[in-house]
Amino acid sequence: MKIAVLPGDGIGTEIVAEAVKVLNALDLQFEMETALVGGAAYEAYGHPLPPATLKLAKEADAVLFGAVGDWKYDMLERPLRPEQAILGLRKNLGLFANFRPAICYPELVASSSLKPELVAGLDILIIRELTGDIYFGQPRGRRVATDGHFPGTDEAFDTMRYSRPEIERIAHIAFQAARKRSKRVTSVDKANVLETFQFWRDVVTHVGLEYPDVALDHMYVDNAAMQLVRAPKTFDVLVTGNLFGDILSDEASMLTGSIGMLPSASLNASQQGLYEPSHGSAPDIAGKGIANPLATILSAAMMLRFSLTQETAAQRIESAVKSVLAQGLRTQDLASKGTTPVGTVAMGDAVVRALNSQR
Ligand code: NAD
Question: Ligand 1, atom 37: nearest CA belongs to which residue?
Answer without folding.
Answer: 280
